[in-house]
Design a protein that fits this description.
The chain has 293 residues and is mainly beta. The protein is elongated. The chain contains 3 helices and 11 strands. Strand 5 and strand 6 form a beta hairpin. The strands form 2 sheets. It has an 8-stranded antiparallel beta barrel with strand order 1-3-4-7-8-9-10-11.
Length: 293
């Protein structure tokens, strides 16, 4: 076969190819059919930002005392515990799982001694002839907060110190005893009773999230490290201590100041700044429409 015939055969073979097939890479065909791909569940990872929120909580409290020596007593319940909080979450190991919370709360605490009648005798314990004492207080807790966020649910744990001040007091006694309380001390603190308070505040809870706000339910605990009394008020040889241990169940609403996930305003400003001051070079090969003669 002559050279002319060989060239003619090659030319006819090229003309027989589909238009645009020459010089183009072959497209990779997926081994999975479309029907299977439609059943695959693709989950999106929730990337959290540093975000903060302001909240209001209201709840009830169960108050008791840890007495030394031990006195028979009963818990006291109060339907009034409320306050405001500011929470700020920051990033740790790449994720904002830890933050801090500062709050201001108003509540009640107290104690009630048991009065029992056994074998015709009444057994009781009293302080200044009072068998029940109620106090109101204000406190400021500062806590570290750990949390785990899901799209519409949050679990959290918090713990930290608090400082407080007892605002008022009211004493009463059992009718079975017929004791008289000094009128000057019914609604006033005695010299040996401490008004400043400090200790440990913590709790666990969950939140239902509806951006930009969330509803939270928290079980809080406060354990005082300051006794209600001067230990030697009754005897210089036999000290008495009373440390409050309170449980509070609260519900509240918290408003997000910044976006919980997605691009924040700060991120968008940074991105715009990078585009203005560090523009990327235009790739003419990938953008043929931008070519200029």
């Amino acid at each position: 076969m002559s050279m002319k015939k060989i060239l003619l055969v090659c030319l006819l073979a090229l003309l027989a190819l589909p238009s645009g097939a020459a010089g183009k890479p072959k497209t990779k065909v997926s081994p999975y059919p479309d029907a299977y791909l439609d059943t695959v569940n693709v989950t999106k990872k929730l990337l959290l930002n540093d975000y903060s929120m302001f909240g209001f909580e209201y709840g009830i409290s169960r108050n008791s005392q840890m007495f030394t020596p031990r006195f028979p007593s009963e818990p006291v319940y109060f339907p009034e515990y409320f306050g405001v909080t500011f929470t700020r979450y920051g990033k740790l190991i790449g994720s904002p799982v830890v933050g801090f919370q500062i709050g201001a709360f108003y509540g009640h605490e107290g104690y009630q001694f048991q009065v029992k009648e056994e074998e015709g005798r009444i057994k009781y314990q009293a302080v200044l002839n009072a068998t029940r004492v109620e106090m109101s207080y204000a406190e400021v807790p500062f806590m570290a907060v750990g949390h785990y966020d899901m799209p519409n649910l949050k679990l959290q744990l918090c713990i930290g110190p608090y400082a407080g001040y007892r605002l008022s007091i009211h004493r009463s006694t059992s009718e079975l005893l017929g004791l008289q309380i000094d009128p000057d001390l019914v609604d006033h603190f005695a010299d040996f009773e401490k008004r400043f308070d400090y200790g440990l505040h913590g709790g666990v809870g969950f939140g239902l999230i509806f951006d930009p706000f969330e509803f939270q339910v928290n079980l809080r605990v406060r354990y005082s490290w300051s006794s209600l009394w001067e230990p030697s008020y009754n005897s210089e040889y036999y000290y008495r201590y009373a440390y409050p241990l309170d449980f509070m169940l609260t519900g509240g609403i918290h408003f997000h100041f910044t976006r919980r996930y997605g691009k924040t305003r700060a991120m968008l400003r940074l991105e715009a700044r990078e585009r203005v001051f560090n523009p990327q070079p235009i790739d003419n090969e990938s953008n043929p429409g931008t070519n200029r003669p």
